[in-house]
Design a protein that fits this description.
seven-stranded antiparallel β-sheet, single chain, 11 helices, SH3 type barrels, alpha+beta, GMP Synthetase, Chain A, domain 3, four-stranded mixed β-sheet
Length: 368
């Protein structure tokens, strides 16, 4: 790690299988990261354990090359960029954007650390490898090569809503772009529109349509920002999915709420998103049709409900656990402490998980 004050340290981090370095650093609760076997490069000072504020990190890289900074995707396009840091250093490397995704939109959604692959320091052409760069330490990002496909105009979005005529007067057609989709309204106008007769007359604009046209609240806008920076939002962006529906979010949305909002934005079932997460995070998908009662008995219901995690099976040494948040490193540590078993995380759709927890721990609220 290169810190923002120029200090350099080596150490070891503990990541879940398949977890990327950028997402790991950006998701630390409270902004703290545990580092062991620390060696400071300047004076070779050593420390067995160090707790560091991630905001002080400028650049992090896996020296062994065994921790990816970002999950690759067959739907992503390589974008060559230069990243200018606050100290004047410039790094050139590759970002992975969805087809036709604007660079500014990607940077807004990427979270606290920007993953750059095949990075090179321009001053001396030193190869840095795949690095995670603290966005707070970045001054500018310069687009070097824009793929030809990104120049094409975005595909038209067919409005899934009916077109309503407010009354029998002549109408004009107005297209409205929202955070969800495209809406088309027919409103009173001066000139006749022969297409108006194709629509079914209604008295007034439907309440549901009016709700879609209401501006987002400050809390909803804040929730959209948090959802974009959340690991789920980043998975959606890498897979070319639409971002979470802002109207379904609060100022500080939970992981489950972000699940629901991304599914709503893409008209997909939770089970479909679970498969996407499985591929991106390299974890299995939980099956609730063959749960081992012995595994369930290993975790008290009160703890399982609090962690929103359901034991699925065990072989005596490994406990397989279903969760809607497979990148929650604290979950694995707590379950390992409770069971003294190695924990294997599986991803589960949040609604199915909630029903399964209710079935297997019906009396959890009473302290079981």
């Amino acid at each position: 790690m290169v810190l923002r004050d120029g200090a350099i340290l080596d150490g070891r981090l503990f990541l879940n299988e398949g977890q990327t370095l950028a997402l790991y650093l950006g998701s630390r609760k409270g902004g703290w990261v545990n580092i062991v076997d620390v060696v400071w490069a300047a004076d070779n000072e050593q420390a067995p354990h160090l707790v560091l504020q991630v905001e002080h990190i400028a650049i992090a890289v896996s020296t062994d090359g065994d921790v990816p900074v970002v999950m690759g995707s067959s739907m992503a396009l390589q974008r060559l960029v230069q990243v200018g840091l606050e100290n004047g250093v410039r790094v050139q490397g590759i970002l992975y954007l969805a087809d036709r995704q604007r660079l500014s939109d990607y940077l807004h959604a990427v979270g606290r650390f920007l993953p750059v692959t095949q990075a090179v320091r321009l001053a001396d052409q030193a190869a840095l490898g795949d690095v995670a760069i603290n966005c707070a330490a970045i001054k500018l990002v310069l687009d070097i090569a824009v793929p030809a496909t990104s120049e094409a105009p975005p595909a038209a979005v067919d409005a899934p809503y009916a077109v309503y005529v407010i009354d029998d007067t002549p109408v004009t057609r107005e297209a409205v772009r929202t955070d969800v989709t495209s809406l088309t309204l027919l409103t009173p106008g001066r000139l006749p529109d022969r297409r108006a007769g194709e629509s079914r007359p209604r008295q007034g604009t439907p309440p549901a349509l009016l709700a879609e046209l209401e501006p987002l609240t400050a809390d909803q806008l804040s929730g959209m920002g948090r959802a974009a920076r959340h690991w789920l939002g980043q998975v959606a962006a890498r897979r070319g999915l639409a971002p979470a529906v802002g109207r379904l979010l609060s100022a500080e949305p939970s992981t489950v709420k972000i699940w629901h909002a991304i599914c709503a934005a893409n008209d997909m079932a939770e089970e479909e998103l679970a498969v996407v997460i499985s591929v991106e995070c390299k974890v299995g998908v939980a099956a609730f049709d063959d749960i081992d009662a012995k595994a369930v008995a290993l975790i008290p219901g009160k703890i399982a409900r609090r962690l929103n995690a359901l034991p699925v099976s065990t072989d005596g040494t490994v406990l397989r656990v279903a969760t809607a948040d497979p990148l929650d490193g604290d979950l694995e540590q707590q379950l390992r402490f409770v069971t003294r078993l190695r924990v294997e995380i599986l991803v589960a759709p949040p609604t199915a998980l909630a029903h399964a927890l209710e079935w297997w721990y019906p009396d959890a609220g009473s302290g079981s």
